[in-house]
Design brief:
Family: Belongs to the polysaccharide lyase 8 family.
Radius of gyration: 30 Å
Helix content: 25-40%
Keywords: Lyase, Signal
Number of helices: 18
GO molecular function: carbohydrate binding; carbon-oxygen lyase activity, acting on polysaccharides
CATH class of one domain: Mainly Beta
Protein name: Hyaluronate lyase
InterPro entries: Chondroitin_lyas, Gal_mutarotase_sf_dom, GH-type_carb-bd, Lyase_8, Lyase_8-like_C, Lyase_8_alpha_N, Lyase_8_C, Lyase_8_central_dom
Oligomer: single chain
Distance between the termini: 84 Å
Mean pLDDT: 94
């Protein structure tokens, strides 16, 4: 029961008889004062609990408005709820409330039961829904809760299936149902269901069925949110404090295991790059919990909270292009039909706006402007979303939650917020073996693997053809925002992904395992936040059982990507090729391919071996989406147009088996059977026309300086850049025009920019195992050190520049130094 309000306490004091006051002993006065203070505190706390419940209800139902996006979302909500309502079977003898949810061994049916009841509860509790306040629907939801408690989900049951459904999926939905139905449930019913949540989520920091296992990352915050909402529902100060305190561990940058790293990486399951899946879940739960608790007695006061704003810039922003999250960090989620790079981007937008709601102004403004820029550039959304204009049928603008729609409406209406442009730059995520190049007109990212980061993750029947998704897969995001959307992952040839050197081999899946590379030389260097090298010394043995191996590097230089490969060998009787491109085309597959000035046939099924190829050009599906390809070695290029068919069930066992189709064009450099020292080079020129591509091929302004077992190196004279990967230990020297230029004493990635009067240098140890130093010498003389990273010792400036880099425990980090040159 609620304690007395402050006014009631005052009235009690006024009613005391003056003569009685004189007879009160001091101890009695003190006891009464303490009792009254406690009653007042209880009154304040009850009010706080109610406020928290109201806040969570707001996150579930949004703010009433006539905005077309809200009306469309409400209609869809009611449609789905009504569909489930019509099919529900509340008979006590039924094995499941719905015919397709009757398994007694698959724990996902627990989550699915509560998810459907949650839809029904939201439809009847949300103002504006055509089912709002429907008494029969409310009664059936309550009866559904009772059925679940009696038959499927209550304290003391023997578990089966995936732990996640018992400890996160089911209680997460149940807690929201209890919020929506709070006034319709009796105190005894609320107590019963809250006890169920307490049984399966007693500790947000520990695995319930394995208490010795500490929860981390997304799972920990999911549980913290469940406990926090449960605390509000049951008026439990202890549960709310526990939810708040569980947050702190996730806010710190980690150096191993799950969580965010200082370089922007995010890892879940110990060795999987997961920014765009578990990272999103983590941010989603954290943003919801912070919004729930802000300004309350249980608001977090951890100084590490500022890291969350840093994540938005360092971890998430580089991996999003115009509101779409790159698939290279989505892991198993790429196999889910309902999940796409664009839906992942929408999830991030919602989370960032929730963060901004409680953030200081200095942090809130850039978050909102970032989201506004993505929103307005996204072809599925656009500048007219959330402005009151009529919606197109099935508009993505209505795919946000009801609460997010309210926030987005405010964002669009705020004319003081300018949409932030895409931010150019280059970044190596050394802790998760990913790299990205960002340009005003495109983004390019790479998926690599090592002995630290797995080639793939499969499990729960998801991601059933994943072998090559982490072995050098490249993704180019440009004005064609549908390139990786739709049915891409169900139709693309998963044995011939762009960027990979492949023999199309596959093997039995290793679920939940660390699928190691045979080499630890994976990563690269970044310079001035603008340029980077990413390198992969790979062996496919642990991934597909193949003996294929090779050394691959990508030089991410401004408006171009230079790809270089060498030492490619295989003992298998499988043809080896390097896939330059495998691009999803427009719906008719008619994108024009031009090779050396000649347009090639456009009919599906066409293929050709194009010898002595200097350049190729693929017309984009949208203006600004053209791509040029230049081949410095003038190799034979195998071109292929396909209309490919596939099914989502082939990559996720729970999906439907219907056939989907898409058109593709691939370009590949063949290496033949059992190569021993094959190599390749190509340059990708995003956004270039055929004429511009031909002009670049005629005067490329780049040189391949080394392509051997020991070294991969190039020069781009237009930018004054030299990038070199020293692949073996022992002192090695890189020559330029027959003269020594750069040497390294050990394995290293070195990136150098030279201008008329300055020399900038970046050095990294991609192996992450060097416990000492790397000595680098440049055949230039300098007059001064202009800037220097900690860890670099400049040994001399002339007659050559020599420096020593302490890379012990650097975790692949780049060390930068800048000199004034002697001329």
């Amino acid at each position: 029961m609620a304690g007395p309000h402050r006014g009631d306490v005052d009235m009690m004091m006024k009613k005391m008889v003056p003569m009685q006051r004189a007879r009160l002993w001091r101890p009695t006065l003190l006891a009464l004062a303490g009792s009254l203070a406690l009653q007042t505190a209880q009154a304040q706390t009850e009010s706080d609990y109610a406020q928290l419940r109201s806040r969570w209800l707001q996150q579930l139902t949004g703010s009433p408005s006539t905005l077309p996006e809200r009306q469309a979302a409400l209609a869809e909500l009611a449609d789905k709820a009504e569909l489930h309502w019509q099919a529900i079977n509340l008979s006590s003898s039924t094995p499941g409330l719905w015919p397709d949810l009757q398994s007694s061994s698959d724990a996902s049916v627990l989550t699915s039961h509560y998810a459907r009841l949650l839809l029904m509860a939201r439809a009847q509790a949300t103002p504006g829904s055509r089912l709002f306040g429907h008494p029969t629907l409310a009664s059936d939801v309550i009866e559904g809760l009772a059925w679940m408690h009696a038959n499927r989900y209550r304290p003391g049951l023997s578990r089966y299936g995936n732990w996640w459904d018992w400890e996160i999926g089911a209680p997460q939905a149940l807690s929201s149902i209890l919020t929506l139905m709070h006034g319709a449930l009796s105190a005894e019913e609320r107590s019963r269901y809250l006890a169920t949540i307490d049984f399966y989520v007693p500790d947000a920091t520990r695995r319930g069925n394995q208490p010795s296992l500490e929860e981390t990352g997304a799972n920990r915050l999911d549980k913290a949110l469940i406990v926090g909402v449960r605390g509000a529902l049951g008026g439990s100060d202890e549960r709310l404090r526990h939810a708040r305190d569980a947050i702190s561990q996730t806010l710190h940058y980690v150096t191993q295991g799950d969580g965010f790293y200082a370089d922007g990486s995010f890892i879940q399951h110990s060795y999987v790059a997961y920014t765009g899946s578990y990272g999103l879940v983590m941010l989603d739960s954290l943003s919801r919990l912070l919004l729930l608790l802000q300004g309350s007695l249980w608001a977090p006061n951890d100084p590490q909270l500022n890291n969350v704003y840093d994540w938005s810039e360092r971890a998430f922003r580089p991996l999003v292009r115009d509101g779409a999250m790159t698939d290279s960090v989505r892991g198993r989620a790429i196999a889910r039909r309902s999940s796409s790079n664009h839906s992942a981007g929408r999830s991030l937008m919602g989370s960032l706006l929730r963060l901004a709601e409680g953030a200081p102004a200095a942090q809130a403004q850039p978050l909102k402007e970032m989201v506004k820029g993505w929103l307005q550039r996204n072809r599925y959304l656009g500048p007219t979303c959330f402005t009151g204009q009529t919606l197109a049928p099935d508009s993505a603008c209505a795919k946000f939650s009801l609460h997010e729609i309210s926030l987005l409406q405010g964002l669009q209406a705020n004319t003081s917020l300018s949409p932030a442009p895409e931010r150019p730059g280059a970044q190596v995520f050394a802790a998760m073996d990913r790299a990205v190049l960002r340009h005003a007109d495109f983004s390019f990212d790479l998926s690599l693997f090592s002995n630290r980061i797995s080639a793939y993750e499969s499990g729960n029947g998801e991601n059933l053809r994943p072998w090559w998704t982490g072995m050098g897969m490249s993704s180019l995001h440009n004005a064609d925002q549908q390139a990786f959307d739709g049915d891409y992952w169900a139709t693309v040839d998963l044995l011939r992904l762009p960027g990979t050197t492949t023999d199309r081999s596959s093997a039995a899946l290793k679920n939940w395992a660390l699928i190691k590379n045979t080499s630890n030389w994976v990563g690269g260097a970044q310079l001035e936040g603008r340029y980077a090298i990413a390198t992969l010394d790979f062996g496919a043995l642990n991934v597909t059982g193949s003996s294929l191996k090779g050394k691959k590097a990508w030089f991410l230089f401004g408006d171009k990507i230079i790809a270089l490969g060498g030492a490619i060998s295989s003992g298998n009787s499988l043809a080896v090729e390097t896939v330059v491109e495998n691009r999803k085309l427009n719906t008719s597959g008619s994108n024009t391919l031009t090779v050396g000035g000649q347009a090639q046939p456009s009919m599906p099924g066409w293929s050709a071996s194009l010898s002595n190829t200097a350049w190729a050009h693929l017309a984009g599906s949208q203006p600004g989406a053209d791509i040029g390809y230049v081949f410095p070695d003038r190799p034979t290029v195998q071109a292929l147009r396909e209309q490919r068919s596939g099914s989502w069930k082939a990559i996720k066992s729970q999906e439907l088996d219907d056939t989907v189709n898409a058109h593709y064009l691939s370009l590949a450099i063949p290496h033949g059977l059992k190569p021993t020292a094959a190599s390749y080079s190509y340059v990708i020129l995003p956004g270039r026309s055929a004429t511009q591509t031909a002009a670049f091929a005629a005067q490329p302004a780049l040189k391949i300086l080394a392509r051997s077992t020991d070294m991969l190196a190039v020069q781009d004279s237009s930018l004054g850049l030299v990038g070199a990967n020293f692949l073996t230990n022992g002192s090695k020297t890189l020559n330029l025009d027959g003269k020594p230029l750069l040497s390294s004493s050990a394995k290293a990635s070195v990136l150098m920019r030279e201008s008329a009067d300055e020399l900038a240098l970046s050095v990294a140890d991609p192996t992450q195992v060097n416990t000492g130093s790397i000595t680098v010498e440049i055949q230039r003389a300098a007059s001064a050190v202009l800037a220097n990273s900690p860890g670099i010792t400049v040994l001399r400036l002339a007659p050559t520049v020599q420096l020593q880099v302490n890379v012990a425990q650097a975790a692949g980090r780049s060390f930068e130094v800048r000199f004034r040159l002697q001329r």
